[in-house]
Amino acid sequence: MKVRKTLAISGVVVALSLLTCGACIWLFQDQIALARIKPSVPFDVLPPPAKPDYSDRRAWAAWPDDAEKGGADIFLIHSTTFSTSANWNAPVTGSAATLAQKTVLPEQAAPFASVGAVYAPHYRQATLFAELSPSANARAALEFAHKDIDAAFDRFLAARANKQRPFIVAGYRQGAIHALGLLQQRIATQPALHDTLAAAYIIDAPVPDFLFDEAMGDIQLCAGPQDPKCIVSYVSLEKGLPREKHRVKESALFWNADGVLQVVKAPGIACVDVENMSAPRAGSRCADGLLLYARPTRASQQTNRWFGRQWRQKNHYPLKNAVAADAARRTAAATQQLDDASRILEPIGEAVDLVDSPVNKVRE
Q1: Chain centroid to CA 356
Q2: Is 340 exposed, middle or buried (0-12, 13-18, 19+ CB in 10 A)?
Q3: Which of 134, 213, 284, 328 is the least crowded, having the fewest Cβ atoms under 10 Å away?
Q4: pTM for the complete prediction?
């Protein structure tokens, strides 16, 4: 009898221990997932991968066969495809680059491919942990990756045969952080670039709304469906993901005047409802700074909610058709503005005095 009682008590203890352990794993699953992908040594200890040469087409995940395709040139920065703890930054060759080129980029470039010629560089992207952590090492890895984006953008600008043709800058997640850097450091400070910007798309990286008070210069969030030279920014999130909603709103990154990444805690987040910009309809909506959409019915398109898989690459972008239509409208508007501006004569700088001249009559 005592043995049975002891066994029963032991069984209850084991069951409670398992339940407690399972509850702890469930509660701290994101922290566990982050710990698994965190590089074990500081950023400045690991040797950097080889620098890409952007004069070589092999350094580009996408380079157009027809540079005059469509109405705009698109500089596209893909999202993170490197998620190991082996290094803080990925090489531009290897499995991460292949995943970007073969799997991720076709989906992310789809909204822009019908609008114009797409240029997308390989770059020494920061590992996924850097995108999710506010640490100094993480920011150093992102700043290192941005040097490649800056160099690739120079090559993109040089390759544009028609400098008066509109261009688009677009980035997803880590790529959106780098696109924001180009807007703050390059485009907002150079009128010639701002004048030919059709639009910028900062997708799935939170942008602090206070940047538009001053740091972005004349570049503002898009307010109307056909406004050119503006920014469409949003973080799309499947409804019913409270942990991820909390993580996104917890902090955001932005670039200061010296080109250094800064962290801001719990900022207001800029959100442009790209799907309902031209005509309100059921579907996504901006709520508390996030663009929420209904959970897809297909299991393959749903966000995996367990152990960090929600941070992996999406295989479904529910707003891509809305982005494609939006980019087409803004490109058309920018083209019209540039055409109108080219027809306006420069004003005369100084008044010119006309002197009297003799009039010679024509003989009849």
Answers
A1: 64
A2: exposed
A3: 213
A4: 0.84
Q: Please state, in angstroms and as integers, the Cα–Cα distance from residue 300 to each residue in 93, 96, 108, 169, 239, following that order.
A: 28, 22, 17, 29, 16
Contact between 75 and 129 under an 8 Å Cβ cutoff? The reply is no
- Return the percent helix, strand and coil in the chain, to nearest 5: 40, 15, 40
Q: Which of 120, 223, 110 is nearest to 178 (CA)?
A: 120
Does residue 311 lie within any of the structural domains? yes
Domain contains 39 = no
Q: How far is it, in rounded angstroms, from Cα 292 to Cα 310?
A: 15
Calpha distance 342→346 (Å, rounded): 10
Tokens read off for 52? 């890409």
Nearest to 278 by CA among 235, 333, 239, 212: 333
Under 8 Å between Cβ of 245 and 290: yes
Domain that holds residue 187: 53-341
Q: CB-based contacts of 172: which residues, under 8 Å, 6+ apart?
A: 77, 78, 79, 108, 203, 204, 205
Does 125 map to a domain?
yes
The Cα–Cα gap between 135 and 43 comes to 11
Burial of 291 (0-12, 13-18, 19+ CB in 10 A): buried
List of residues 6+ apart from 98 with CB closer than 8 A: none
- Per the structure, the count of domains in the chain is 1
pLDDT in tens, the chain (364 residues): 665 666 556 555 555 555 554 554 445 456 566 677 789 899 999 999 999 999 999 999 999 999 999 999 999 999 999 988 889 999 999 999 999 999 999 999 999 999 999 999 999 999 999 998 889 999 999 999 999 999 999 999 999 989 999 999 999 999 999 999 999 999 999 999 999 999 999 999 999 999 998 878 889 999 999 999 999 999 988 786 777 777 788 889 999 989 999 999 978 999 999 888 765 555 678 888 888 876 756 655 555 554 445 556 665 677 889 999 999 999 999 999 999 988 865 565 665 565 555 555 555 5
Cα separation, 36 vs 83, in Å, equals: 10
Distance, in Å, from the CA atom of 197 to the CA atom of 195, rounded to the nearest integer, reads: 6
